[in-house]
């Protein structure tokens, strides 16, 4: 049985996340999708096509880990399956956020021949779990964009099973996926990724 | 007979759009003009020369599809005719927004020898009506700037009759026109265009 | 006799201008100074060294056209004389704003060998008084920075007497001066100048 | 005996500083640390790992000049010692702020072979204590980043003892430290440094 109080609380976290992320310019034009875990088998996720800065409670629905609607006739985000595989992969993941920033879009296009973004020498790398120094590398995979979400779900899961310390992934010309134990952790990962991607882009403007 | 309640409601949509667009920096220094359809023959449109972030109800007037004032002695925007031809072209258009962003101004000047902006490979292209993949092209025509609004009205209409799927057009060194069934749709088109133009400009900074 | 109600009203305009200009990032770190005319012989002007986003009524003092304090023991801005000569030059000037934006600072340094910024081909040029087309040129003089305000006052006045249609001037590595009949007009000039300078800077990033 | 009223007042200054600095984007993803002096031997400083835009009173703790917690079981910022040596160095320092901006991060990486940032020709240099003209140089040392805070504490102190007029220092790929008599002074130094670093970065984009 789903605990509706948990759903309601998680839906509020999703709404607040949307207000922040839209305000930062990272979820424009009804793009992006967000979710939070309700229990082992269920998540609260954004309904498809909503303005992310103006989410209402009824814009957050429940799906199971197969992506099927529960207690709802609404249509969840087209990318629901990308969220589901993350929750299934690691039981401790409590939230998943997908955003569409200019920095993510531009940087992945500029790195056209690379399948990863390598971050090193930044103090802010320490915002990611388990990172205690600026001296190591944080590797963020870049997947090619596709409208075939099932393929992307499989590809992202394979990668993460091989490299479980990965804190986020990028889709080229599209955006960022990240996750964390809590919504606050996940938002911190987004802030760090957006900061670091913006820095990389600034470096390219001068040094390329 | 004009339905004044419809006028009043549409005027409120125009005012709210102005607050948003000015806040984003896309309508500086009293530039820009906005309208919303009242009925088949009439639109609510901004009076010339007003601060777009501080519009009051009396700053929104009614004109007919020939651009003539109705129930008003005020002077509507100098570009009123560009709005009128769009409403006449397609009965389903409910709102038209014209903005002056830095990205639109700079990008159209940098593309000095091109009469169109071609967008491809961006997930956000899906924000436009009928676009379901990042794989196609979205073509935005760029018209030369002129103070002869009648000429520009004819030119834009000719283009749109030939390419009716066009979601927006640009005027070089000047700004963006876009439209939609509702004000919310039209604002989504602006957000998407501004995002994509900003990305194109960033790409040019690194890659040109 | 000074009309104190006029002083109080103008001080409020100055305070509101400061909140806007600081919010835009154009008056950082207690830089900038602002004034508004009280009568033929007096202006309300910011006291030296105040936070421009947090001005209080007591931070706005009265000076005469020679820059001498009236009814005050406070010290007005070090650049008071630059304001005074503008009010003396043209009786219709009602407000003078001096700001320190990044765009003004960087652009005047990049144009190191030029004593003017020439704006052309921008629709937004029409935000300046008397400009009705994008086709002409708007010429903004750039003066060398100096701590000798008396010299700069003379230099700016000489220039304006020769070119009275000038809507603003720049000081290299320092900032912008502009003026207008009302505070609203003057703020519109700043918005237009900041927009146009930002565009020029973006063009240089790609095209230089 | 510690004056708790002074602690409580200083903690409020720290909280307000955090709201401002986070809002500007200079303290993302729980980075940064801030402090204010309570008395000759004690300072109020941020607890490690908190969201800097959402600090609560309990997130500000007391440490002595050796960096040891007083009346607290919480863990202060990992960089506490960098604050302590500044307060010990100069009795008149009342606040110390450390921020992580994109400009500081990118600029120090671009100046990879330089151990200082030299600012000259900017009017805004006058925001720093004792600077009365744009004509001199303001020299900001750049230290290499390290997780060994004790080493960095010694290095920064040695430098400042040799060059006591230094208004701030940078850590490469990491961020900015600055200080002042009051929190307001220290915030003014940050605003000035961020403005000037952003200008330097813009210049590099065009001129390098």
UniProtKB/TrEMBL annotation, chains A, B, C, D:
Per its UniProt record, the required cofactor names are: Zn(2+)
Judging by the UniProt lineage, the source's domain of life is Bacteria
**Gene Ontology molecular-function annotations:** methylthioribulose 1-phosphate dehydratase activity; zinc ion binding
Q: Which reaction does it catalyse?
A: 5-(methylsulfanyl)-D-ribulose 1-phosphate = 5-methylsulfanyl-2,3-dioxopentyl phosphate + H2O
Amino acids binding Zn(2+):
98, 100
- Which InterPro entries does this entry report, sorted A to Z? Aldolase_II/adducin_N, Aldolase_II/adducin_N_sf, MethylthioRu-1-P_deHdtase_MtnB
**EC number, as in UniProt:** 4.2.1.109
Quick check: keyword Zinc in the entry? yes
Question: Can you list the GO cellular component terms from the UniProt entry?
Answer: cytoplasm
Alphabetized SUPFAM superfamilies for the sequence:
AraD/HMP-PK domain-like
Q: Which GO terms describe its biological process?
A: L-methionine salvage from methylthioadenosine; monosaccharide metabolic process
**Summary of the function given for this chain in its UniProt record:** Catalyzes the dehydration of methylthioribulose-1-phosphate (MTRu-1-P) into 2,3-diketo-5-methylthiopentyl-1-phosphate (DK-MTP-1-P).
Q: Per its record, how is this protein called by name? A: Methylthioribulose-1-phosphate dehydratase
Origin organism is Oceanospirillum multiglobuliferum
